[in-house]
Please model this.
Amino acid sequence: MRGRRKLGRGVAVVGAGMSKFGMFSDKDSKYLFAEAFHEMLSTVDKGIDPKDIDALYLGNFTNDFFVHQGHWGPIISDLLGLTPKPATRTEGACASSALAFREGVFAIASGFYDVVLVGGVEEMSKRSTEEVTQGLAMAASPYEVKAGFTFPGVFGAMATAYFARYGASREHLMNVTIKSHNNARLNPKAQFNVSIRDIMNQRIEKAKNKGEPVPAWRDEKEFLRDPRANPVVAWPMHLYDCCPISDGASCVLLVAEKIAKDFTDNPLYVVGIGQGSGKGLHAKEDLTYFEATRYAAQEAYELSGLKPKDVQIAEVHDCFSIAEILHIEDLGFFKPGEGYKAVEEGLTRLDGSKPINTSGGLKCKGHPVGATGTGQLVEIWKQLRGEAGERQVPIKDLRVGATQSLGGTGGTCTLTILERR
Amino acid sequence: MEGRPFNDISYEQFLSEDKLMGSRCQKCGVLFVPPRSICIKCYGSEMEWVEMKGKGKLAAFTCIAIGPPFMIKEGYDRKHPYVCGVVGLEEGARVVARIEGVDGNKPETIKIGTPLEVEFLHSGEGENSTTFLAFRPS
Model:
């Protein structure tokens, strides 16, 4: 990197909201975005007149393919009564709304706008699994697609390389899954707000009621080892290693730092933003990390003057269980090859020293692709302001939180760091 | 052969002729498989075609139970997973490919580092014909 990155002026987050994530046959993406927008409005402590919003940046990936309408920016702008204010759609695959956020930050930092709405939306569940798989594969490298790789397959392959290098195994991935479910159990917005233990009990109850043989799982890992309960998708990725197909929307309100206190006495300041791009699987220098995440992290840390240890909580892009382990290493929270041990030791749990994915992550909260980046920010917003309810982390003087997004198979990665002062 | 542009169309044509080809920068000697038309090390644009020996080692793999439509058509499903991998070629570059001759139902028997050799899987006819790059244990 040549020279130190800097923002022209400060930017703050003063509101954040999301729809419930899930599979909704009766809700379309406009309805979901309206739900997210409404919640966002209610979180602006001193209120906001939507007419004061200068511009909208909207992350969305698959509408061209799934809804046969690609020009979604003005449609959402009209939905919210924002026309004729400008609306811009950003595309970065699963990192689409992380890019919307970044563009919104730049737009304010440049001095051009004072109040910007950034968000994301995706409507996926009305399509067949086959169509969704095909649609998402648009974000993989063409060589991977031709070779027969699927998304879980790419992450599965990286997992085998990681296992071989560091001696980790499937058992370690299970620790990520169990933790994500435990957190999501406390998140009413999550698609799967149940623990693995809850799921086991439901299955046992169902078997008893039907008079079928009652499964004798002793613990969560035994459940996850059972191929009937947790079938393979792309070895070593099994069903419970993979995020679901989801519908949902999320948004945050960005304003210039100098006017932040007009909206709330408790704004979160954007102290670090970073973005990187990465190569396809065959061209990676190393199969056990994402160069794009490392670059994004370096950029964000440099801008903020913070170090990995200063980030107290983070939402990372756990589209697959192995991804969470790779990200917490790439972000510098743990050394390469140490991430799986940190998860095993409980350091990333809600009550650990570095809570990761307190929302339940993509795995359990859900992954409506375009809505995920700003959805992660909604969680950090709640945590840093002490509004996360039952899942509030018990860290004293919680001030710094981060979100990391990954698009495609590592093609687009971002890191955003927010601070409460 | 020399006159073909250094791109994916040519790469695919070569595969259909049972050749795994890359491009080498004539200025700095870096090899790219699949080919690149500009060198990303020295930014030279003088490339030459180089044929790979087709030998390599397994660097990473996955056994896919839920595949895309074209693999399902070939008969692969949850009971019959197929294997994809990343192969480190003897020449240094890596490629992604199908891995044949291993049991997708027994991933624990598939080992990283296994020596492999190239195989070209021809599929379809006429305009629908295509060749899949594959490797199998040597």
